[in-house]
Design brief:
Layout (H helix, E strand, L loop, with lengths): L9 E7 L6 H9 L6 E8 L4 H10 L4 E6 L4 H11 L4 E4 L5 E2 L3 H11 L3 E12 L3 E3 L20 E3 H7 L10 H10 L4 E14 L10 H14 L1 H5 L2 H40 L1
Parallel strand pairs: 1-2, 1-4, 2-3, 6-9
Antiparallel strand pairs: 4-8, 5-9, 6-7, 6-8
Helix pairs in contact: 6-7
InterPro entries: Glyco_trans_2-like (IPR001173), Glycosyltransf_2 (IPR050834), Nucleotide-diphossugar_trans (IPR029044)
Protein name: Glycosyltransferase family 2 protein
Length: 275
């Protein structure tokens, strides 16, 4: 009987900034994994809340490593945790979210068996302010150029993180999107699990909830600046996207012009009525 190699070791990295009310739940879900080859690293990104600092001190143990640093932002906290990681694979988990007990086992099985896969995600369940379920879809790298179709809590290879220079620390929004594009630029595939593996807390003030059109456009520009060769290689997709936006803008201008005419008429009529 041919011996089987042990599954790849997974490092779960949990950045935390003043999230003492929730981080314990995130760590609990990481400790509850059915696959024992798990390393848990919590990065305290300069928390100023006394309760959070107390909670993190209590979490420090043989099973949970707590790393402290000055406040540098989410990407830098993730990179710091991954730099300390010893696992073959990396699972970034936000401090107010949770993962299913079998997530590590399911993701590892895919990554061990399929060397070309660089990103593994799965179904999502929302809880808190809003509830519901969703499952990300991936239709090839072209579908990712102008829309982030993957979610933050996806598993990647540590070697790929090192190869692409980690998460971008110079951007404030959609840093995970740029990270995915960097990995896809290596020629990696994506696998989406059928199972629900990520429990995504919905609460007021989240960046993703507050992202308007201007922020979304800035995120696209940042992605294009970070990966110019990738976008140049798919110029047909870029051209189609720009043409669509220009058409939408022309339609808006046409309608807005009519609104201007109506506003001018209304103001003239009001002045006449007042006289």
């Amino acid at each position: 009987m041919t011996p089987t190699s042990p599954p790849g070791r997974v490092s779960i990295v949990i950045p935390c900034f003043n999230d003492g009310a929730y981080v314990g739940e995130a760590v609990e879900s990481a400790l509850a994994q059915t696959q024992p080859a798990v390393e848990i690293i919590v990065v305290d990104d300069g928390s100023t809340d006394a309760t959070t600092r107390t909670v993190l001190e209590a979490l420090q143990s043989d099973a949970v490593q707590v790393h402290r640093q000055g406040n540098r932002g989410l990407s830098a906290a993730r990179n710091a945790g991954i730099a300390l990681a010893t696992g073959d694979y990396v699972l970034p988990l936000d401090s107010d979210d949770r993962i299913s007990p079998d997530y590590v086992q399911l993701a590892t099985a895919v990554l061990d068996a399929r060397p070309r896969v660089g990103i593994v995600g799965g179904g999502i369940e929302f809880f808190g302010l809003t509830t519901g379920r969703a499952r990300p879809t991936y239709d090839g790298i072209a579908s990712m150029l102008f829309e982030n179709r993957l979610y933050a809590c996806s598993v990647t290879r540590r070697a790929d993180w090192e190869a692409v220079g980690g998460y971008p620390e110079h951007v404030r929004f959609a840093e995970d999107w740029i990270y995915w594009l960097r990995i896809l630029g290596l020629g990696r595939d994506v696998h989406i699990l059928d199972e629900t593996v990520w429990f995504y807390r919905q609460r007021p003030g989240q960046m993703t909830r507050d992202m308007g059109w201007r922020t979304a456009t800035t995120a696209i520009v940042n992605a294009m600046r970070d990966q110019p060769d990738l976008y140049a290689a798919h110029m047909d997709v870029v051209t189609e996207y720009v043409d669509l936006k220009l058409s939408t803008l022309d339609t808006f201008r046409h309608r807005f012009g009519r609104l201007n005419d109506f506003a001018s008429w209304a103001q003239t009529s009001l002045r006449r009525w007042r006289r």
